[in-house]
Design a protein that fits this description.
Length: 262
């Protein structure tokens, strides 16, 4: 079991921002990544649909022998991980928007969160804000259209620039000093967001925290891979592999996006 792969899934390439942190912290682990681009964006779907899709993704990764699954998608984490934990015996790691550190460190006592509709309307997000952001105003903004642009290869485009201005400018007017990226696709936009938000706004994502949590759980469950040697990392996508390939091409190693009919 120890040398079985870690499974990671997302609605597309967003979870690759989590994959990078996991691989950095746990270079010895075999990894299977599933980009369920066919069903993107998840953010516009109902809770029931997101649970159904997450179950299918879990079954795919289990069929590949995964020992633990990282749900590298805020929308699926906030809506489906509770269900997955109740129905499957392996550990699931979920992504959570970094509201707690943002609220703790805010001087203006106003923080922004940019996330999908599915994440912002979830109970988990509501509970997290209630618990960790007492006395701090949380300005919520749906990033409608951002995932679709990234998934269609338009990460750097005039449409992207205008959408980012439309979403971020009003938050700046409300005096935010921290901006939480509550969707795993958004760290790809960090440089563009910095251009708009300037140096006074700290931009937070959850990648490193998720990698640390994955290590903690693997250690507790005696699942860390102790063998060194050939490590395999495999990247599946169920739609046109071109966009994923472009991102994989920026990694240090040579990876091929594998098209699966799943
Ligand atoms: N990366 C997913 C997330 O973190 C994107 C959701 C979507 O497909 O809308 O929420």
């Amino acid at each position: 079991m120890r040398n079985s792969p870690i499974g990671i899934f997302d609605s597309g390439v967003g979870g690759l921002t989590i994959y990078e942190e996991i691989h950095k912290l746990l270079p010895n682990e075999n990894i299977i990544y599933l980009a369920d681009n066919k069903n993107a964006p998840y953010g516009e779907k109902s809770k029931e649909e997101i649970i159904d899709i997450s179950v299918k993704n879990t079954e795919f990764l289990l069929s590949k022998g995964c020992k633990l699954i990282v749900v590298a998608c805020n929308t699926a984490s906030t809506n489906a991980v509770k269900y997955l934990r109740e129905h499957y015996a392996i550990p699931f790691i979920r992504v959570q928007p970094a509201i707690k550190p943002a609220a703790l460190n805010s001087k203006t006592k106003v923080v922004g969160i940019l996330a999908t509709k599915g994440t912002l309307k979830s109970e988990l997000l509501f509970e997290t804000s209630q618990r960790f952001a007492q006395g701090v105003k949380v300005v919520e903004q749906v990033g409608e259209g951002l995932v679709t642009l990234i998934e269609s290869g338009k990460m750097h485009s005039s449409e992207m620039t205008s959408l980012l201005h439309k979403y971020i400018d009003p938050m700046l007017d409300k005096n935010i000093d921290h901006l939480v990226l509550g969707c795993t696709h958004y760290p790809f936009l960090t440089d563009q967001i910095k251009e708009i938000a300037g140096t006074k706004v700290a931009i937070l994502d959850s990648g490193e925290a998720i990698a640390r949590q994955t290590k903690v759980i693997l250690t507790e469950e005696n699942l860390l891979n102790l063998e060194s040697g050939d490590i395999s990392r495999i990247f599946y996508t169920n739609k046109d592999p071109q966009v994923m390939q472009q991102i994989l091409d920026e990694f240090d190693e040579e990876f091929v996006a594998i098209k699966t009919n799943f």
